[in-house]
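A quick aside before the break. I want you to see a complete sequence-to-structure record at least once, exactly as it would be stored in a machine-readable document. Don't worry about memorizing anything.
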Amino acid sequence: MHRNEPATAAISNDAVGTVDALEAPRLNLLPRELSDAELELFVSTGVCSEVAMGATIFRRDEFGRHLFVVESGAVRLEFGGEIHDKTILSREFFGELALFVGAHARMANATALEPCRLRVIGSDEFQSLLQAAPDILARFMLRSFSYLVASEQQLIQNLRRRNEELMQTLDSLHCARGELGAARQLSLSDELTGLANRRGLYQRLEALRSQLPADTPLGLLLVDVDDFKQINDGNGHLAGDRVLQAVADELRAAAGACDIACRLGGDEFALLLVAPERDGLETKAQQLVAGIRKLASNVAAKIPAVSISVGGSRAAAAQEWANRYSDADTALYRVKAEGGDGWSIC
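That is the input. The structure line, written in tokens, reads:
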């Protein structure tokens, strides 16, 4: 861009007289459109600057000192963010805050959309115009201030709407996070009993192994409902579900704060105990078997006569799960082979 620095211009009495003799201002001016009197006043005072197409007139955040009037051509103001770009056409002005506010940081990039002829008015020139033609400048400033206030109100409204949209998005993210957390919890738990499922057991087992010393003993009790197929076939699936839920309740009641009760699938359950002595593991197995035997006496629960087989093993936390499971499974099927309704610790 080629720019001539504006110098204070004297306004002749003839020029002022001509301005005073102008007709009444045109009605229905666009927000940035100059009246005939305003345009003639600024053209008579401003320094002419020819700007090539694509040239930058000023950049965002630069400190401005001049008002610009477009005598011919078009200028694009690019604000960025939430504010829409604006196109300034012939007879319109921009950059007025630099005169009204003083050393003002530009809010937009100004670029010539086509070859332009601009009139550049500095603060000294503007003060001279204000003294020479106060009525015209007063109308110009009043309209400019009204436009700036309206723009500010629109910006505030847009920011409020944007803030509301952000809050709604945040709420949606919270909901999605909650739903993901619930879905994750469902993926780690058994829907019927509410106990951990096999995946949940493995995850919690890995967490325990990372938290406990390697030589911390872990006990495993595998629990199998005796003759569960016959219970289902003879009493219906609803009765079968009640049996599974009752067994789950017994395991949940037997589990300590750090222990993990789990439904592995079907009628097979597990209870993982942290740091049990062998006697303690045997006691837990006995309690489970005895507790299930008592269920048949609870007529209100509508649970048929049922028994369980329990097989257990005890090993250090560092030992592989497959070995621990295999030992408990061997003990479980030893009980099964003897008719069930009992326990065995490997």
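Two observations worth writing down. Residues 1-25 have pLDDT under 50 and may be disordered. The chain has ten helices and 15 strands. We'll return to this after the break.
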